[in-house]
Amino acid sequence: MTAHPHATSDSILAAILTSLDDDKAEEITQIDLRGRSEMGDWMIIASGRSTRQVVSIAEKLTDRLKTELGVQSKVEGKEAGDWVLIDTGDVIVHVFRPEVREFYQLEKMWAPASASESASR
User: Fold this and answer.
1) What are the phi and psi torsion angles at 107 (to 5°)?
2) What single-letter DSSP state applies at residue 23?
3) How far apart are the C-alpha atoms of 20 and 48, rounded to whole Å?
4) Coiled-coil intervals in this record (predicted)?
5) Radius of gyration for the alpha carbons in the chain, expressed in angstroms and rounded
6) What are phi and psi of 97, to 5 degrees?
7) HSE (CB half, 13 Å, CA atoms) of 51?
8) How far apart are CA 31 and CA 117, in angstroms?
9) pLDDT digits (tens, 9 = 90+) for 78-87
């Protein structure tokens, strides 16, 4: 999971948001983890309408990060397609089917006390 020397958490975040948008991910939420967690700087939560779309979103995202920024990502859950985790080191991305996202409610666990800190797209 080593990024290209010029890939910053902000450039990785921007590339992820663009990729998710291009692939029609829904309810894209970004949560700022800087100073709150050692696991990364940002958490992105998004939904795909079906297991096929969830897997497709994850595959295209990891391919784009590798090609465009030289970022190797650790991926878990792609086989099932209900919830795929993509860990770039600086940015953690969760892509869910809507029912699975509703069940786990990660936004509630990680959202800051002040909702204004968390930008939703």
Assistant:
1) -55, -40
2) T
3) 10
4) none
5) 13
6) -75, 145
7) 6
8) 8
9) 999 999 999 9
Residues whose CB is less than 8 angstroms from the CB of residue 21 and which lie 6 or more positions away in sequence, other chains included: 28, 121
Band of residue 56 on the pLDDT scale cut at 50, 70, 90: very high
Q: Which residues face 86 on adjacent strands? A: 75, 93
Architecture in CATH of 9-111? 2-Layer Sandwich (3.30)
Helix, coil or strand: residue 58: helix
Contact in structure between 69 and 4 (CB atoms under 8 Å): yes
What's the pLDDT score for residue 71?
94
Residue 121 — very low, low, confident or very high, per pLDDT cuts 50/70/90?
very low
How far is 117 from 101, CA to CA, in rounded Å?
Answer: 21
Residue 31, token pair as written in the block:
């949560």
